[in-house]
Amino acid sequence: MLLPADPSVTAAPLTILHDVFGYAAFRGAQAEIVEHVGAGGDALVLMPTGGGKSLCYQIPAIARHRAGQGLTIVVSPLIALMHDQVGALEEAGVHAAFLNSSLTSDEAWRIEREMMSGRLVLLYAAPERITTPRFLAQLDQLHERGRLGLFAIDEAHCVSQWGHDFREDYLQLDLLHERYPDVPRIALTATADETTRADIIERLRLASARVFISSFDRPNVRYAVVEKDDPRRQLLRFLQDEHEGESGIVYCQSRKKVEETAAWLNDEGINALPYHAGLEADVRKRHQDRFLREEAIVMVATIAFGMGIDKPDVRFVAHLDLPKNIESYYQETGRGGRDGLPADAWMTYGLADVVNQRRMIDESPADDEFKRRQRAKLDALLTLAEAHDCRRARLLAYFGEASAPCRPDQNACDNCQHPPATWDATEAARKALSCIYRFHQQRGLRFGAGHLIDVLRGKATEKVAQYGHQQLSTFGIGADLADTQWRAVLRQLVALGHLRTEGEYNTLELTPSARAVLRGEVTLLLRQPAEPARRTRKGERGRGRDKAPPLPLDTAGLERFAALKAWRGEVAREHNLPAYVVFHDATLAEMARDAPATLQALAGISGVGEKKLEAYGREILRVLEGAAATDR
Ligand code: ADP
Ligand code: ZN
Q1: Which of 69, 277, 316, 615 is least crowded, fewest Cβ atoms below 10 Å from its Cβ?
Q2: Which residue lies with its CA nearest to atom 18 of ligand 1?
């Protein structure tokens, strides 16, 4: 069924990249992938978010369509995002459509006709649609005519039960291979772990596919973990001092906390919206649309929000609660900085997080083996949170990728940027553990962190009097350390598994490994707690980072940038699309900097393809001229 290789097919990719998308060169493995798939090979593509996966199937789709090999079917789990994905292609002059339950039957019927006519280049659909008898019958017809060009399976990790976004319907997709063995398939995911990878290959029958694994480093993402002190205030300071007027996501663990945090941020004058699975579908959709379409919206969400959100200019992902494991942390933080510009992955973290996550595992109905694995995964994340060396290197090491610490020219992690002072907490740890031991010895009782710290610091509270704890030999032996230091010691001891918490009041209890610490056989090196507000003095605002615009611009350039953004906003509203679908910020900034005066010069700007040049070129030149005129 494969048509003989047309030489123009292999020659075309770079031309398509340039003419359709307006980009000068392929990134990383893109060129190889595009060539392999364009020539009819199967591929599994593992690339981090923002790596440029879409072009890996869109360019072969265009090439194959031009070579008369027909339509590309894109399997995507996210009905809500298809509209914008298709809009972006149509803006670039590529005929694309989607079929999903949001369409009226008339609209669906019209698109089916487009699909059968051979005019359509890409069709997006959810797996449950693709595996219906009606749709398969249509694919059969196209296949018979040699007009079924390619299957692209996006978010391919959804096929894995071990993954974080399992979708039952993805399991049926193996029938594509059985039914149309000669049609190439490309599966794509940003999930890095090996189990999921093996699962995808098995379940989608991709054993003979070429696997392309990119580095999972996100060089533009800065990782930072701060000790929880007053988390809301810390978040507010982070938003105000470093991300004023920018879009981002704040993750919380519970629906209640999402609601409360969003409401509180609004009271503080920040444009925040809640998102969680408990909200009505239309509210969720409205909030998602606003996040994608408007600027400077802070989405406060549970993990229900995120997969496939391809908004390129998410400038930060903040965690108010600890994620489950490193995989989740990487996925969630990965939603920042798709456009390659600096983005922050920022997390607050404290003893309660460790306790909560441990308890969630303990109380889950899963079997022991599963719980054991979950605990090991949580421990790996705790080690990352407690680290005083490069977080990027640790993150990549977890995914089996060796890496040097952040380079100075990178958006370096907190530890590389400000190497933290450490102190030897071995003695302190012994004091804390022996105090817990004494509590228990005295009357067989256990207490929580608050009371323990009071006793160590020698505070004469009511509770101390009630239990006669001023009698203990450990009373007041820790007066030299501050409250925050003691909290850090206890958090580490719990994180490292020398202490565990019990019951409703999170009382502290020694574990078998505590003995080695008590004997002084384990050295504990702790990060010196940061001075509160150290990084947030007014004079330091936004220091060291490019705020919007993404390029340094002079005054005239800034005016042009503002004029271009205003123009883009109007076009986006008219077309009912997010602004970034019209042009990315980076493209507008380049226009503002270079102020091209001719269409030819404008065509040289990255992100300006032929169709957009034709549709918008003259208007852009006028906007640029207008900005220059008001400047005089
Ligand atoms: P992913 O799906 O892997 O997260 P996308 O396909 O959304 O990534 O691409 C991320 C961003 O990078 C997009 O804005 C895209 O336009 C841009 N991009 C991708 N490939 C290139 C390239 N070769 N040159 C310039 N920009 C690119
Ligand atoms: Zn680093």
Answers
A1: 277
A2: 52
